[in-house]
Amino acid sequence: MNELKKLLIANRGEIACRIAQTARRLGIETVAVYSEADAQAKHVACCDSSYLIGPADARQSYLNIDRLMEVVRESGADAVHPGYGFLSENVALARACEVDGIMFVGPGPHAIEAMADKARAKAQAHQAGMPLIPGYYGDEQDDAFLKEQALAAGFPLMIKARMGGGGRGMRVVRSMDEFDAALASCRREALAGFGDDTVMLERYIERPRHVEVQVFGDAHGNVVHLFERDCSVQRRHQKVIEEAPAPGLSDSQRDAMGQAAADLARSVGYVGAGTVECIVDPDGNFYFLEMNTRLQVEHGVTELVTGLDLVEWQLRVARGERLPLAQDDLQLNGHCFEVRICAERPNKGFLPSVGQIQTWSLPEHIEFAQGDVRVDAGVRAQDSISPYYDSMVAKILVRADNRDQAIARMLDTLHATEISGIQTNLGFIKAIFSHPEFVAQSVHTGFIETHLKQLLNMNLDRSPA
């Protein structure tokens, strides 16, 4: 077993605080990194030591691999945890750690590479037995050829950046008349965002659900799935609400998805935490979407319905330990929701809100751990929200015996939460939880878009710009 005494957390905000809490419980010393904009941030205070890595611009700080590796050497860290976002799925960081003999708390470079290329990931998933949406996932990128493939796949169609992620580089095309402009637009966004303008095509499924499976593997060949999460309530392909278990899935569907996801992870020798994302059509058929080779923002949902600490599992696996539990030992318990509280203005097109937090008042809760009401936050009262980073300021999670009770508990928690000094989507989320179709489990990835006007009118926390 490898020794892990000091952990550098290559991230910021709530995920850095979350990782630090588990590391502290396990007796592991923690190292924070911060930009000039984050000198007084909560995650800096949560760690045992901290290092400035650059200016506010993430490209010169949190995305600067050379500087991060300098700090690894200066601090004497044994391992690097990338969190999520930033460099969490960057094969160059994983390789840099490998070259320097530093533990990377995540999968190896080969697995990251295999899943980063969406077309290659689709081929791997198909080989492992996962169903794919009909479409084209090959290397030929000539415009005329792609138009032929689009006709063969049929409309409506989705054009996707092959190296894309985070909802970027995606265009829905409903007829051939729209194809050329959508292809050009998708390629421009893909090249700007990912440095690669290759695309793939797949049939667009109307009113799908987005269901993902949490998987875990170790270096001894063991792989398990920790059930699924429903992430269908999204805005512009960005998740807003997650829940587990996914409503409306039968036991046989749940087992089939879980086993298929575990088989895919096993096929690439996967080590660590990963998520296999799927699209579920209105008839209940599931199709592979992509695999994220990192801990997800919504990992706490799985923690609350399984009673486990996934960051602890990550650290133990990184040290070379076997998975703590086998598949037959894993059980679901109750129902959990997570909401993402963001500094934004729903009544102004969800534009970001910046400024100093004056009031930060939440009901009784547990931070970053097991509890019926849990809050994972990277900010405190008097902290300033800057324009440089993601707008999410906290995640609120609740657990109850069933879905209806969990909805009631979430509404009670949201009504008892007060945040001032910045504007947030708090009222908008209350409106979603109060919407009759959400309560009735009638959710799909277009839920917010379909009901946007009604939800904005229901928003009880509207405030001027």
TrEMBL record:
The signal peptide stretch is none
Key word Ligase present: yes
Q: Which residues form the Biotin carboxylation domain?
A: 3-453
Q: Does the keyword ATP-binding apply?
A: yes
> What's one GO MF term for it?
metal ion binding
Q: Which UniProt keywords apply?
A: ATP-binding, Biotin, Ligase, Nucleotide-binding
Q: Name any one Pfam family assigned in the record.
A: Biotin_carb_N
Question: Where in the numbering of this chain does the ATP-grasp domain appear?
Answer: 122-319
Q: Which PANTHER family match?
A: CARBOXYLASE:PYRUVATE/ACETYL-COA/PROPIONYL-COA CARBOXYLASE, METHYLCROTONOYL-COA CARBOXYLASE SUBUNIT ALPHA, MITOCHONDRIAL-RELATED
Q: What is this protein called?
A: Biotin carboxylase
- Name its species: Orrella marina
Source lineage: Bacteria, Pseudomonadati, Pseudomonadota, Betaproteobacteria, Burkholderiales
